[in-house]
C-alpha cells in the first residue's frame, strides 16, 4: 500500500504543479487572456481537490490503481491539448436518434440532448 500512497501523492503533486505553471504551459503555444487562464487554474485545483476527496476512502488495491492511472492519463491529456476540461468522446453505438416536434434530428448522449445533425454514415 505504501507504493500506492507514493503514486497517489505523485499524481496529486503533478496536477497541482501543472495548475501552478498553467500560464507558462499555455503561453508557449498560444495567447489566452488572463481571466480565462485564472478560471482554468481554479478549475484544475478544484478538480484535484474533488477527486482526492471522492477517492479518499478507497481500500481496494485495484480500484486505487485504476484511479491513479486515470488521473495520470487525464493530466497527460491536459498537458498535450492544453485544455483542462474533459474531452468529449464520440459514441456511435450508445447514441439514439430522436425526432423533435419540428421533425429535425438530434442526438441524445447520456441523457443530454444535443441539437446537432445525426449522420447515419460513418465515412
From TrEMBL:
Domain of life: Eukaryota
UniProt GO cellular component terms: mitochondrion
Annotated InterPro entries: LYRM1
Protein name (Swiss-Prot/TrEMBL): Uncharacterized protein
Species: Guillardia theta (strain CCMP2712) (Cryptophyte)
Origin organism lineage: Eukaryota, Cryptophyceae, Pyrenomonadales, Geminigeraceae, Guillardia
Amino acid at each position: 500500500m505504501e507504493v500506492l500512497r507514493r503514486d497517489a501523492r505523485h499524481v496529486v503533486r503533478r496536477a497541482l504543479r501543472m495548475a501552478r505553471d498553467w500560464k507558462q504551459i499555455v503561453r508557449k503555444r498560444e495567447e489566452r487572456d488572463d481571466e480565462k487562464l485564472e478560471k482554468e487554474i481554479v478549475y484544475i485545483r478544484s478538480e484535484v481537490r474533488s477527486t482526492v476527496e471522492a477517492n479518499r476512502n478507497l481500500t481496494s488495491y485495484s480500484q486505487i490503481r485504476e484511479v491513479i492511472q486515470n488521473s495520470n492519463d487525464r493530466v497527460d491529456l491536459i498537458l498535450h491539448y492544453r485544455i483542462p476540461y474533459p474531452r468529449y468522446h464520440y459514441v456511435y453505438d450508445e447514441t439514439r436518434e430522436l425526432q423533435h416536434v419540428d421533425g429535425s434530428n438530434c442526438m441524445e448522449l447520456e441523457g443530454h440532448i444535443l441539437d446537432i445533425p445525426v449522420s447515419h454514415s460513418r465515412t
